[in-house]
């Protein structure tokens, strides 16, 4: 290992294996192919045939490529071996440097004695050729070659500064791949170095072991290349029949025969504009004279445009020119880039028949395109009139100059057409101009004359052609004056076709031509019928939708309140708009309750159509029935929830999908005496309150799940509303739609309501709809605005009544005095009589506390409350009965009467008109007229 004392070369400075070589290029000599002599061909390595020459060239190229590949692989193997040796050396050096005890041994008094056995053992076990341990100044203290101990190593200064070295060592007597690793103590100071390496001769031996495989692969590749070249040469020999260059040149000399036999005309025109060559087909197509070659093309009797194009030398592609009665497609290209004298090569094709066929194909393509547009553009809406307009628009100007569409009046109303088809309503007119003489939209078109093409089309059920209206006597007989104006305008041709769907005639479509000179032909009838059939299906669908929509709207409007009931507690305004695509299940209601109270109801049934409208009617009826019991809002919604659940169970048992689940409802009761409003909601938006100063509040109302889901108790929220407050109830269609989310809609509603205390409920409705109405309503919208009023305290009188029959007279007298103050002496007697009966019943059958209250609003209201929950009932009193006639008298004198329950008992109430006297008693119900 004495060679380790010599020079080194860094691994990074080694050149990369392999170099790019140059590739020979060949090409043709300018001036076109030359005809080589037989002697020159044979001089090419003595090979006569083209196939043999190709084989020889392929073998030479393969040998060169394989040799280059072998050299490259050998260099790469050498490089990889050196890299592997450096990596092994580095691993061995780092392992020894990091081994426990290395640092301690280097700092001991005798490092050689401590490290020499370990170095010898490590060198044998690591697979490297040498391991050496050095001091920081490069002096070896241990080495697997003991003769080197004490000698200084060269080029190890970077390692002494703490940098690991990996390099190719070059020196006498052997080169090596060496790695030098610094050994540092705990403080990071270099206390020594460890070097390890592999001799280059061992690396070369590893490379030599790969040479047989490389050479064997090269031989196999050469054999494969020779074999493939032989196959290619054999195939080429078979295709060329063993011809040499001379024989192939002879074949080139026969190009004239092929040129003149072609079915495409070929001309060669020099740069001086003279005809150089013309094959037989070109002579025939252009009708050239025999002496045409050599003459200027402008003097050959050709069409001027064709002659100018040929003489211009311009490069064109498939340009059509006229030559006699033929249409020729010309292609011209310059000859200069391809050798030979400069000039122009012209090819000619006869496209006369092709043009005729392509014209027919173009018409068919345009018709198919128009039918596709009709499928896309007709029927975009479910409106009968708009669908007819789309039919008239899609055919102009691609098929006709003007189109008119007439429909039967029942079709326009959405009804099934029946009866005769002699009268139709013009529904749509479209044309290329606005000043047409045709009857306008809305006119009634009559087909009274059987000779008209319209009548013939209706009778046959197929399109009828009237190619020349100037001689169409039947068409002119229907309306001579109108026909005269149309002919004077220039309308000259007509196709009329009935609009039929399911075998039922819906209307007529008429296609007119005026400015287009071509008349309609028989081929146009099939297209007109196809176009009309597609439109008829769309019109029939729109008609059916119109009918169903009209039925649903009629049902819905019949179920909604037509007028608001009279009451004085609230000033109410409302808005209701059905969805544009169909009706839904939104509803609202205002229900007067006893005691001058008013119930406000807003609800929503999910879905659209007849089922939603019918469901809304059922729920509204149920709400009215439950309101008649005078229950609090939470109990009414609880009963309504049970009803919906029961209906869903009954209707869902037969597999029906038309369930009510998804309905929501808000029920509120306003009392003008106390100014309090009780609100409960089931899945519905809470009300919005606008205070008298314009401030908007959104009160917290406990929300119950939608009706039919059940399971949770419904709670009632109590709101105190100052007089002049506005209570705003609405459905989700107002605040939420496809273009706006719910949070944005609620924020916009609050902003619209805020800051305008002077608005009336009607003005509030108008402002909300102006700001929030969506452009396309996909859901119903219900809005209810109620401004509160308080009953004047002078119109309220009440008394506590002790449980003593003697107290009845005192209360009766006080009641009479109060009625005199209100100016109600006319009803004083009947009121005192009813109060006497009600108070007596409360004392006799009820319990304390007993209270009497009179309210004078639109009517006179008498209320007697007690702590008992027992409700009296009207019954027939027998002759021998001592009682049983008091409630009968109350029912006869009061316009309305009833009982409502409170958390502490019940209230018996009556209502009387301020004037009108008493009703005569029904004596047939009495067995004894005595009271």
Automatic annotation (TrEMBL):
**Pfam families cross-referenced by the UniProt entry:** GAF_2, HATPase_c_2, sCache_3_2, SpoIIE
Q: Which InterPro entries match?
A: Bact_Sigma-Reg, GAF, GAF-like_dom_sf, HATPase_C_sf, HATPase_dom, PAS, PAS-like_dom_sf, PPM-type-like_dom_sf
Q: Does the keyword ATP-binding apply?
A: yes
Topology term for the membrane: Multi-pass membrane protein
Q: Where is the composition biased (Basic residues)?
A: 1-12
Q: Where is this region: Disordered?
A: 1-39
Looking at the UniProt entry, the stretches that span the membrane are: 54-75
Q: Does the keyword Phosphoprotein apply?
A: yes
Domain of life here? Answer: Bacteria
Q: Which residue range or ranges hold the PPM-type phosphatase domain?
A: 567-788
Subcellular localization: Cell membrane
Per UniProt, the keywords (alphabetical) are:
ATP-binding, Cell membrane, Hydrolase, Kinase, Membrane, Nucleotide-binding, Phosphoprotein, Transferase, Transmembrane, Transmembrane helix, Two-component regulatory system
List the SUPFAM superfamilies: ATPase domain of HSP90 chaperone/DNA topoisomerase II/histidine kinase, GAF domain-like, PP2C-like, PYP-like sensor domain (PAS domain), Sensory domain-like
Name under which the protein is recorded = SpoIIE family protein phosphatase
Organism of derivation: Streptomyces ficellus
């Amino acid at each position: 290992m004495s060679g380790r004392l010599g020079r080194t070369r860094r691994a990074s400075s080694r050149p990369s294996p392999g170099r790019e070589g140059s590739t020979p290029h060949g090409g043709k000599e300018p001036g076109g192919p030359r005809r080589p002599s037989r002697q020159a061909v044979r001089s090419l390595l003595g090979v006569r045939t083209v196939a043999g020459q190709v084989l020889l060239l392929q073998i030479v190229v393969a040998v060169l490529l394989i040799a280059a590949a072998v050299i490259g692989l050998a260099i790469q193997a050498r490089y990889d071996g050196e890299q592997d040796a450096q990596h092994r050396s580095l691993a061995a050096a780092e392992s020894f440097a990091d081994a426990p005890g290395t640092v301690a041994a280097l700092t001991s008094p005798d490092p050689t004695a401590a490290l020499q056995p370990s170095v010898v053992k490590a060198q044998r076990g690591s697979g490297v050729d040498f391991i050496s341990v050095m001091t920081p100044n490069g002096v070896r203290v241990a080495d697997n070659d003991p003769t080197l101990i004490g000698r200084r190593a060269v080029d190890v200064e970077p390692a002494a500064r703490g940098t690991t070295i990996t390099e190719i060592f070059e020196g006498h007597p052997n080169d090596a791949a060496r790695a030098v690793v610094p050994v540092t103590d705990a403080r990071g100071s270099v206390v020594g170095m460890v070097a390890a390496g592999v001799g280059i001769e061992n690396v070369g031996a590893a490379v030599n072991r790969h040479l047989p495989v490389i050479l064997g692969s090269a031989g196999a590749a050469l054999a494969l290349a020779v074999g493939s070249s032989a196959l290619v040469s054999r195939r080429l020999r078979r295709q060329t029949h063993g011809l040499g260059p001379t024989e192939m040149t002879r074949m080139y000399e026969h190009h004239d025969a092929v040129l003149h036999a072609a079915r495409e005309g070929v001309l060669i025109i020099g740069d001086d504009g003279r005809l150089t060559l013309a094959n037989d087909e070109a002579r025939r197509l252009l009708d050239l004279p025999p002496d045409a070659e050599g003459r200027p093309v402008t003097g050959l009797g050709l069409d001027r445009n064709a002659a100018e194009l040929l003489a211009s030398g311009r490069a064109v592609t498939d340009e059509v020119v006229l030559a006699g009665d033929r249409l020729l497609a010309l292609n011209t290209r310059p000859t200069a880039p391809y050798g030979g004298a400069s000039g122009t090569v012209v090819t000619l094709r006869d496209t006369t028949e092709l043009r005729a066929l392509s014209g027919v194909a173009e018409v068919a393509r345009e018709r198919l395109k128009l039918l596709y547009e009709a499928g896309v553009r007709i029927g975009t809406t479910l409106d009968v009139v708009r669908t007819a307009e789309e039919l008239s628009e899609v055919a102009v100007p691609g098929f006709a100059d003007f189109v008119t569409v007439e429909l039967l009046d029942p079709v326009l109303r959405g009804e099934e057409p029946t009866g005769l088809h002699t009268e139709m309503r013009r529904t749509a007119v479209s044309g290329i101009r606005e000043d047409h003489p045709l009857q306008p939209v809305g006119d009634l078109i009559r087909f009274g004359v059987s000779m008209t093409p319209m009548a013939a089309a209706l009778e046959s059920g197929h399109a009828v052609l009237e190619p020349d209206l100037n001689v169409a006597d039947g068409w002119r007989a229907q309306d001579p004056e109108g026909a005269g104006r149309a002919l004077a305008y220039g309308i000259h041709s007509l196709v009329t076709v009935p609009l039929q769907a399911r075998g039922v005639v819906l209307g007529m479509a008429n296609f007119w031509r005026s400015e287009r000179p071509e008349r309609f032909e028989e081929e146009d009838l099939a297209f007109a019928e196809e176009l009309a059939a597609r439109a008829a299906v769309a019109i029939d669908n729109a008609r059916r939708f119109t009918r169903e929509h009209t039925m649903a709207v009629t049902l819905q409007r019949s179920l909604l309140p037509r007028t608001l009931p009279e009451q004085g507690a609230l000033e109410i305004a409302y808005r209701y708009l059905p969805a544009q695509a169909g009706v839904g299940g939104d509803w609202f209601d205002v229900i007067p309750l006893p005691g001058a109270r008013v119930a406000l109801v807003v609800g929503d049934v999910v879905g659209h159509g007849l089922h939603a409208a019918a469901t809304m009617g059922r729920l509204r009826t149920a709400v009215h029935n439950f309101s008649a019991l005078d229950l609090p809002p939470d109990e009414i919604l609880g009963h309504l929830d049970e009803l919906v659940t029961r209906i869903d169970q009954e209707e869902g048992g037969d597999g029906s999908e038309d369930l009510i689940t998804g309905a929501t409802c808000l029920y509120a009761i306003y009392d003008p005496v106390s100014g309090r409003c009780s609100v409960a909601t089931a899945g519905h938006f809470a009300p919005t309150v606008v205070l008298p100063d314009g401030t908007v509040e959104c009160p917290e109302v406990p929300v119950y799940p939608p009706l039919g889901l059940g399971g949770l108790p419904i709670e009632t929220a109590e709101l105190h509303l100052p007089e002049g407050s506005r209570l705003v109830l609405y459905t989700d269609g107002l605040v939420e739609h496809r273009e706006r989310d719910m949070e944005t809609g609620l924020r916009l509603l609050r902003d619209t309501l805020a800051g305008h205390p002077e608005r009336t409920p009607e003005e509030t409705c108008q402002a909300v709809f102006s700001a929030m109405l969506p452009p396309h309503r996909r859901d119903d919208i219900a809005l209810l605005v109620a401004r509160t009023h308080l009953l004047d305290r002078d119109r309220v009188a009440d008394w506590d009544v002790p449980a003593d029959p003697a107290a009845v007279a005192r209360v009766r007298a006080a009641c009479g005095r109060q009625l005199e103050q209100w100016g109600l002496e006319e009803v004083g007697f009947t009121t005192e009589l009813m109060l006497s009966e009600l108070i007596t019943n409360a004392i006799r059958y009820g319990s304390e506390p007993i209270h009497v209250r009179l309210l004078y609003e639109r009517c006179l209201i008498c209320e007697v409350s007690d702590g008992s929950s027992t409700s009296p009932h009207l019954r027939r009193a027998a002759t021998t009965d001592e009682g049983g006639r008091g409630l009968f008298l109350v029912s006869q004198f009061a316009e309305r009467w009833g009982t409502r329950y409170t958390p502490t008992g019940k209230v018996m109430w009556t209502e009387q008109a301020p004037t009108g006297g008493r009703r005569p008693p029904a004596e047939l119900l009495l067995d004894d007229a005595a009271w």
